[in-house]
UniProtKB/TrEMBL annotation:
Signal peptide: 1-18
Protein name: DUF547 domain-containing protein
Pfam families to which the protein is assigned, alphabetical: DUF547 (PF04784)
Native organism: Vibrio artabrorum
Keyword match Cell cycle: no
UniProt cross-references to InterPro entries, sorted A to Z: DUF547
Domain (DUF547) ranges: 88-198
Keywords carried by this UniProt record: Signal
Length: 264
């Protein structure tokens, strides 16, 4: 059994450090800019208001406190988004749609499996998390979380701040924002998310003569550019400029972003 466990462990390690490439799914790269109707994300906002709490630098979710009624409401919200055709809306409206759908589905997956210590425990035997599983059907097309992030959001909008918007239910991930994304608040919310993460210890940690960055900057280096461009990006949001760049390490905490009942 030990050799098998070793092989499984190595496979998990490989999955953990292999980030999907940004590869456009052309079908989703169309919109109706004349259509100015907005999609309601009020149900998701109500969930955030009730169950998202801030503790130190982390935004946590009170998974254990979510009522049966609110679990059903979350599923209904996801189902309602599935039944919409996002291509009928503007690109700005679509961005909010995809980010909120991604985050709501992620929370829903955790709730279905709860109690669980990490999202990486979801998925099949040889899977590192649920990101490759079909989770929603939009326009009769099955989509995974990877599809939403790496085949729609990243290649269409080409905005590195998207990494601060989508949440993977882990302590190492940029915080789940307090507001549902909308076409009106996307820009300030992205700026807020970026500033919050870059100034947190899980984003950028400078200690003595060492610089520790989130593994996000390693996994998705292609989105942030060269090392110099990355440092410029960080300094754009940092209250203190990044220093000690000659010794850079990367770290990520996959522990569940779970709040206890005292974190209210």
């Amino acid at each position: 059994m030990k050799p098998l466990l070793l092989i499984v462990s190595l496979l998990f390690s490989t999955f953990a450090w292999s980030a999907p490439k940004s590869e456009l799914w052309p079908y989703w790269n169309q919109s109706n800019e004349i259509h100015q109707e907005q999609i309601s994300h009020q149900d998701w906002q109500q969930f955030l208001d009730r169950y998202r709490v801030k503790q130190g630098q982390n935004a946590l979710v009170r998974y254990q406190a979510v009522s049966t009624e609110d679990k059903a409401k979350l599923k209904h919200y996801i189902k309602r988004l599935e039944q919409l055709n996002p291509l009928n809306y503007s690109k700005a409206e679509q961005y909010a749609y995809w980010v909120n759908l991604y985050n709501a589905v992620t929370v829903d997956l955790i709730l279905d499996a709860y109690p669980i210590k990490s999202i990486t425990k979801l998925g099949g035997l040889f899977s590192f998390g649920p990101w490759g599983d079909d989770v929603v059907v939009v326009n009769e097309k099955s989509l995974t979380l990877n599809d939403i992030e790496h085949r729609i959001l990243r290649p269409i909008w080409q905005d590195p701040r998207t990494h601060y918007a989508v949440n993977c239910a882990s302590l190492g991930c940029p915080n789940l924002q307090p507001d549902a994304f909308t076409s009106d608040n996307t820009e300030p919310l992205l700026e807020q998310a970026a500033r919050e993460f870059v100034n947190s210890n899980k984003g950028v940690l400078v200690t003595n003569n060492k610089l520790q960055l989130s593994s996000i900057y390693q996994w998705f280096a292609v989105d942030f550019g060269t090392e110099q461009q990355l440092l410029q990006h960080l300094d754009l949001y940092r209250t203190q400029p990044v220093t000690n760049t000659h010794k850079i390490s990367y770290d990520y905490d996959w522990s569940l972003n779970q709040a206890n009942e005292r974190s209210r």
